[in-house]
From TrEMBL:
Membrane topology, from the record: Multi-pass membrane protein
Pfam families, A to Z: BPD_transp_2
PANTHER family named in the record: ABC TRANSPORTER PERMEASE PROTEIN YPHD-RELATED-RELATED, AUTOINDUCER 2 IMPORT SYSTEM PERMEASE PROTEIN LSRD
Keyword Repeat: no
Location of the protein in the cell: Cell membrane
UniProt protein name: Autoinducer 2 import system permease protein LsrD
Function: Part of the ABC transporter complex LsrABCD involved in autoinducer 2 (AI-2) import. Probably responsible for the translocation of the substrate across the membrane.
InterPro entries linked to this entry: ABC_transp_permease
Keyword tags: Cell inner membrane, Cell membrane, Membrane, Transmembrane, Transmembrane helix, Transport
Transmembrane segments: 21-43, 55-75, 82-100, 106-127, 134-153, 173-195, 226-245, 257-273, 280-302, 308-329
Organism for this UniProt entry: Martelella radicis
Gene Ontology cellular component annotations, sorted alphabetically: plasma membrane
GO molecular function: transmembrane transporter activity
Amino acid sequence: MTDTNAGNRRLSAQAKARLGFFARYATIIGLFAMIVLFSFLSPNAFPTVYNFTNVLNQASLTMIIASGLTMAVIVGELDLSVGFAASLHGILVTGLIVSTGLPIPVAIIVVIAAGALVGLVNGLVVTKLKVNSVIATLGIGTILTGLAFAYSAGVPIVSGVPDAFLDISLGRWLFGIPNNIVFMVLVVLALWVLVEHTPVGQEIQAVGGNPAAARLAGISVDRIKILGFVISGMCASLTGILLASRLGSGTASAADSYLLTAFAAVFLGSATLRDGEFHIFGTVIGALIIAFGFNGLNIFGAPTFSQYVLQGAILIVAVGLSSLGRSLAES
């Protein structure tokens, strides 16, 4: 009986190890498998420098907004306002430039400050009023949608948008690299350094890991959570600005769909290399999986509805892998 029990324990440990390996590396393996498969099926269109650059360019805004969302999720909260906020900020920046006549740099600074303010409000409602972050940010997001329609009267702001503003997203200022890719790299690197290599980042991870223990260690949990929301709001505002620049207009619902994409990327990222922990590098991998998946569907002429099916399926799989990783880490 003792030998049988020992054997069962060894099998259980081996099974746990296999599951742990799958949970940590499935996303990376899946990304490379997807690239290899699409390259084999479409060797002339998919595995080209032009296409890969296009994928990164298309994924750049998702990575920016998802990286900001990751900061809120790391501290243990959810920010469901990011898509609605990005839509509002896209309208706001174009309106300030076209209607108010503000110089483009000033308008951008004002809008990013507005994004920080939205994040601050989210953080205060969650930490001081003790409203659940899902309810709080969904409510704030709905308010932002109303403000977007009020500001634009439901009509896209198109006329009078200067070429210099369009060039922010569509230009290639550095070695022929699309500007949005450059902005994405800067944001991702800045947030990665902040979380992984600064004292504030250690506090952020401590609050996300165990708020009660972090509070006992002298960390201001509320301050750190508010910081997470502020960074999320600023990244949402930057996404809205770059999207408006790419589209050449401000539209009331232009960025709403980024909410689901951002959450899918964040939860896929939590299943990458770590046992269900949210982190910036993982979010980048998650965004790439989504981007390459959409790109492959487009190349093969798949109908539009398939993108929604893929995105929903990815979100379900991502949450499942994240939960599996956390369960294995705790067992």
